Structures
1.
Amino acid sequence: QKTTSMNITRALFLTCAMAAASLSSMVGQVAKTQATQPENAPETKADILLLDKWRHVGFHLISDWQGGEVDSVLDDPTFGFALTYMKHDRHGLLDGGFDIGFQPMGGFDTTAFVVQDGKAPLEGQLRVRNQLVHAHYLLRFTLFQRAKIQPFAEGFVGARGSLLGARFTAQGSDDFTPVNDVPFFSANFSYGFALGARVQMGERTFLTARYGEMRHLDGGNVVQVADADRLTIGPDCTVTSNATTGVTLPPYSVRVGLAMNF
């Protein structure tokens, strides 16, 4: 009986020792976990802020057209580019930002000679283009902001018009020199709305598609465009406009491009 009592006592002692060891191990693991949590907490908070507060930059291919068949846009030579910048604040429903863009509207290329002091005239290619330009302030309302597909609606207001640009490329050279960047400019007030969607492609990148309709005040959709057939080219390749023609701006716009949040 004495031996049995000693065995029981030994078993109880071993059991208590194992329990104490296990408890010590568990306490150490909990302490280790709690010690690592403060380091991970800022990352979790940053991830939340990334979803709720960000800046948005988009680069898009755009085309305006007068209406009719949508397929005609693909045959329209007036493709251009637009840059959009927006800021999102989790405390508001609307995102505000700016949108600027340009599209070629026609022009011509011609051989020109630049007069140089004490040197023979420099021959090269002169490229002259009318550009359709716009600058708008916009407000955007986005649905399902944390989904993969995010539809949105926009309202915008600003200016839209045309400018004449020229550049000279010397013969045998690939470098070009801008020539009087804005010798002629005509713009009118414009406003409108747009519908589109963002499709998430990566953690911070999106594919964006957008359709817009533009409005103007009475007669404001007609801008004066420099007549490419009645331009004066000076000896230093200075381009001036001697006559203009009225052009009715297209009321519709489509665009597709890439955007990034940061």
2.
Amino acid sequence: YHDDSINLYYQKLLKINELREVQKIHQKSIFFIPEKNKKNSSDTTLKSYLREVERKIPKFEDYEVKINLGDNNIQNQGSTRIFSSSLRFEEIKKVMKNSFGIDKKNMHRKFPSAGGLFPIYVVLIQLKDISSLKRGAYYYDGIENTLLKIKDLSEKINSQKIEDSLSPMGSPFSDTVIIYIADVEKELFKYKSAGYRHICIETGMMAQELRNSLLLVKNSGDLSMSGFRHNLLCKFLNIPVNQYIIPMIQYIGKKS
């Protein structure tokens, strides 16, 4: 699945400055300062402003016709911040396959990808043992529908490191976390700087597919997060930050 000669070929053809510029933009977005977050959460002026604008939508005064589409209320469970337990192994299998698996007839996935590159890789981190799934980090191979263990969490130092990287301001929200890892070189090779936009779009679509798949499991939920220690998580997973980025993580589990 990985060949260093491919990366060398990319680097010869890819303008290295474009890769560096995208990495600069991403690195600016990942600095997570708990003290600043706590200060923002207690800022009354900021809270007042957010209450005023959070539900605002563009208002168009000049339009030719208004078409009513019926009832404007939808059913939506939203994000889950309090989880009671992990999904069972059989439930995780169902959710992973339904979210990120491949149709063997046409080799299509449930979400599109610019140029068919599919630069986002999925890693599942399990923080506590559940039947056939022991603590560790697993790469999900959608073609074979298998989980490949790439990191062990049996050592105390590894457990502490991964928890610190996932949740800088406290304990992780649940025991199962989906990590979205983007191969920046692959995307920029074809689309240059626009590839960074594609990475963000595709990650969002994959996260929504996961949320949709959780509807197949009774009383399950998810929580998408950007507030994690990016470089520490990359280091734990042995991912070079000059080639890969982690746009977001997504907790899954049983709702409390």
